[in-house]
Automatic annotation (TrEMBL):
This is N5-carboxyaminoimidazole ribonucleotide synthase. The keyword ATP-binding applies. PROSITE patterns: ATP_GRASP. Pathway: Purine metabolism; IMP biosynthesis via de novo pathway; 5-amino-1-(5-phospho-D-ribosyl)imidazole-4-carboxylate from 5-amino-1-(5-phospho-D-ribosyl)imidazole (N5-CAIR route): step 1/2. It comes from Thioflexithrix psekupsensis. InterPro entries: ATP-grasp (IPR011761), ATP-grasp_carboxylate-amine (IPR003135), ATP_grasp_subdomain_1 (IPR013815), PreATP-grasp_dom_sf (IPR016185), PurK (IPR005875), PurK_C (IPR040686), PurT/PurK_preATP-grasp (IPR054350), Rudment_hybrid_motif (IPR011054). Transmembrane segments: none annotated. It holds the Pfam family PurK_C. Its EC number is 6.3.4.18. The keyword Lyase applies.
Amino acid sequence: MNTTRFSYPLKKIGLIGGGQLGKMTAQAAREMGFAIYVLDPQIQCPAASIADKHIIGSLYDSVKIRELAHLSDVLTYEIEHVDIETLKQLYDQGYPIYPSPYVLEVIQDKWRQKQVLAQHHIPVPKFQAVDDLNATFLAQAKFPLVQKARRGGYDGKGVAILRSIEDKEKILPVPSMIEEFVAFKKELAIMIARDKQGNIACYPVVEMVFDDRTNICDIVAAPATISPALAEQARKIAVDAICALDGIGVFGVEMFLTQDDQILVNEIAPRPHNSGHYTIEACLTSQFEQLVRIVSDLPLGSAKLLSPAVMLNLLGEAGYQGRPVITGLVETLSIAGLSFHFYDKSITRPFRKMGHITLLADDIETALMALDNVKKTLKIQGEDMIHD
């Protein structure tokens, strides 16, 4: 039997983007003995203090991306909004990049993403591409409807829900995809990990609750309170979607559960995802370690859920900005089973993602009850009040 050997560092991983996802990926990589090099425009980005090297530059700077590639054994990314043309050129020249920039190119365009899924018989809401939501289109449109910018949207930005023609002031002036409005029962998500050999690890199906003010994910509950049959159906649809894209890496698949118990794929993220943060404490292998394993040609880890868990995103409080001030931390950390993550962002502003907590409990109901108290107590404000 041949024994594999690695020299330290095991590999040099180049990471495009140094935000909170980059930080948590870098933490997992460093724990396992990998070197991590990060490209990010912010001098004090969350991953900067952990990375072995921080290249300061735009994610659209071809020269900086090539510099990162030349330093690294493999490239990955924590954000979709990057210079895809440079990545495709590097990939075609033989640089290992996961997920493939050709997969990223499909996912970057929400209409094309839906088109590929529909062509492979993945259930999705009805959709169409519309370059201009003009008076002619609105006159024949069926309301309510959802407008999504084809490119560039994230964290609720780039999405407009139009409930009638009176909402025309909400229209986004960009090339768009129009979807039917789905009156869903629940919003679900699942993290899918797939390696180069086609091996797949499926995390539990989770339920997401969104903040009505921002359309940013507020709470994630794992596992989702749905029947085993629906959970299995969601897993199969998600796996089929990633296989349809021929995706290699870690993917967040967001889905709707309709009123008549149909499952429709909403969107796919080609990277670790907000709905998978709970995996750090609650699963045998976190989504971040899983990504490190995949890009480094190591076996997939187990995605087994160790305990029911809920995750709460910590957003900057409305009315505050500047240096973060955390209140209620002592009271919060007195709760058994609770873990606190702060993203090392030196400036807060209203509704900016500043951290998250994960709470493990014997059941979801108990965890959610405790979470209600946390939401009232734990606040991230700023040193400066915002005056209208």
